[in-house]
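Dear colleague,

As promised, here are the two records you asked about, laid out in our usual form so they can be pasted straight into your sheet.

NAME FIELD: protein one
SEQUENCE, THEN STRUCTURE:
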Amino acid sequence: MVNRLTTVDASFYFLEASNTPMHLGSLSILQPPRSGLDYEDLLTRVENRLALVPRYRQRVREVAFGIARPVWVDDRDFDITYHVRRSALPKPGSDEQLHDLVARLTSRPLDRSRPLWEMYLVEGLSKNRVAIFTKSHSSLVDGEHALEIGQVLLDPTKTPPPPTEELWMPRREPREAELVLDAVAEMVARPSEGAATLRMAVGDLIGTAAEVVGNIAAVVRTAAHTAPTSPLNAPISRNRRFAVAKTPLADYRAVRDKYSCTVNDAILAVLTGALRNWLLSRGEPVTAFTTVRALVPMAVDSGVAERGVSSFLVDLPVGELNPVVRLSHIAHATEAHAKQNRPAALPLARMSGLAPATLHAMGLRVASGLSQRVFNLMITNAPGPQSPLYLGGAKVLEMYPVSPLLKNQTLSVGLTSYNGHVYYGLNADRDAMSDVDVVTALLYESLEELLDATT
């Protein structure tokens, strides 16, 4: 029995273009122990955990003539040193140099002839720090059966559990004739599969993704019109810029307690203020009624002791001058959505903890099931653990998501809360949004403005 890509997995695989690589990134900055964390340590660490993410040793094989969705096959020539790589900054490397490196690595598509992931150990950072940047293709991580590798690499204590013994032997790869016969049999038994494959061939991601994304219809119904015209929407290149912001989680909790909203409402209000001032800095016309429509996939409780990912469209009131009124508009919109639409959340695998990168992957699946004409910007917010995590004794100091850009969208914002802070990762088109650093600077100003209103 072949292990075929799901409809959504195949959509991500086929619809990737040179200027819209569909991999998710995760940047972690670590403080190594006195014994250090070198390339061999990381290589051993990853190798010991690959059994927990078996798809990371599988590659995609297409079926002849495109008559069926591709299949996952074990990579008989799997070479872990190809996927786990080493890079370095000139000492003492600055954070800005690290962000430039991440932007360049994000711009490069993954090698389709091998398992669709890469990991980089970046040495040479100032203050004796190291960084780990991971890229995983969106077709590789579904959050239910296949997790992102970061989910299994990190531990809650400095001392990792002993590795489990595992002897991996690749399974026999099916012959071409077997794949064709299996595809024909499937088409006869389920004609709808053939229709779905055809839609993928002509680039209909909306039709294919909507088959499994249960809350897409509810989201679309909230979009009475297309998104406002915005400089956030323009043709994009294959090159990227990456910028970050680190803010205290306690600040958003203070806003929550003062105005009886949610932490997510406060975060969206801060982003709204930053986008408002960014538009003004560009000389864009901003009136009292100007909005930016955001698609916000986020983690939710499904009500059955599990968690999942739901999403909603919200018009961010960038035309509003008063930060408290901006917050009020957003809080009312999110509350109305919660009352009118019971979340039909995409399921997540049962696990002891949630890895932010897996949640961001699920958020992208929700976003990609919608036409980009109905929103200007994607904002994914994934809660992480509020206690330190470790990799082989190295403490994770900071973690930033790197969400991919969708077609004609110049900016993607990913957020992760971890160990008392909220980390913003802003992935932007290098040409269409060369001033992404302005947005990160304005995030701090916007947060300070909202905090001043709480006192």
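NAME FIELD: protein two
SEQUENCE, THEN STRUCTURE:
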Amino acid sequence: MKKSAIVGIVVALGAVWTGTAWYTGQKAEAFVKQAIEDSNVELKKAGDKWGINAVAELASFERGVFSSVARYRIKFTDPATGGAPAKEHEVLFVEHLSHGPLPLSNLKSGKFVPAMVASDFALEETPTVKEWFAAAKGAVPLSGHYSVSYGKDITGNFDMAPVEIAKDASKLAFSGMKGDFEYATSTKRGVFNVAADSLVLSGPSEDSDITAMAVKGITLTSDMKPAANDMYVGSQKVTFKDWTITSKEKPPVQFKDTSIAVDLTEAGPAMGAKMAVDFGMINVQAKDMAGMKLVIDAQNLDSKALKALNDVYEAASRRMLQSQGEQTTPEFTDEERAVLKTNLEQLLAGNPTLAVAPLEVRTANGTSMFNLNLALAKPAALDGEFSDMLVQALRKLDAKLVLSKANLADLMAIEPQTRGVPADQAAQTAKGQAEMVGTMAIAMGLGKLENDSIVTYLNYADGQVDFNGKKMPLEQFMMMVMGGVLGGAR
């Protein structure tokens, strides 16, 4: 091939690359402006709810052929409260945009997938975040990188710098945080993962006995998308490898391998919600005491009714938070109470189910477990006696308690040890107490002994109760329970 032909090809490719980058730069600018418009829509929704007016602005956009520089301004106003006037704040971000089809910043990091634009962004110092910059000791507190595909899907990561803040006798030390995220524009599905090594808070408090709290090994994962009723479905989970609470008067408490997971699902006109809380091990005074797990699962929740109930509760909660301490619990207006009643009836009409499966307590020598399953229905009316409404709303109930005597003895030995009783002595006393509890429960017909565990179960359906094998009408069971309660009170 002639040298002139090769030069011509190179020049042609260069022209195509330059033209594509220039065209992509125009698309990137249009994307940025549209993203700001979309952000302002969401900021207005939040402002209408919480009373904080916020707006995003494109402060400047310097477009080049292969790259551009954009600056964004977010302005928000704290409402006037307690006689103080409204106060305005602003936060600035700068980002260096590399144009596609192969953004230079992506190529530097080994990413060769075509993209419309890639950004390296960072928070800029303003009076609003001046203290954050100072706490980061010269580092940029928040920065990151993201790419936008030609389909306008977004992938990226961010980095929060370590910070230390000390004021009077209080101190905060944060290791910093790293995370990555994905966002699909077509489905509005957002996925992000966050990790931080540690967060330590210490200092006296006027309304609490707690003097310090330290959390290590923090992770947060989220995969959410909008449901048909504009709520969100998906999964979220936060974990703490180690969580220690120090108090003035009480012994230090350490939670090992703690996790909180929430799963929200949608199936046609119904939604489901499941929450699992697990304390892998609870340590008191440097001694492992017990682990605990609780799983709550609600299904067949009417989507429209759930959304209406959630909106009313959110509105009342916002008023409570904005009351400056005058309200300690959410308070509802007459109109909101009517909405609650109507939608609670609609929710129950969908025959929802509620389960505690399980509540579990683990110790070195055994595990105790409680399971509860409820099937609900719409009662004839929601304005009668509570006991009558409860019976009408309850279609079915299954409950089972398995109480390990060895586990019970371990639990009974905890409190004496915190008072200084030697572990061997506390364990021996607790073992005798657990045996006594088991003997009394069996003698009173409250349980049966199975594999050295006290087992109690209760089943209810169609007005009939099965309590540890004894079948009776609900009214008889209620009289038996009330008799036991009144007898215990005497």
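A couple of things worth noting about protein two: Confidence is low (pLDDT under 50) at residues 1-23, 485-490. The chain is about 30% helix and 45% strand.

Best,
R.
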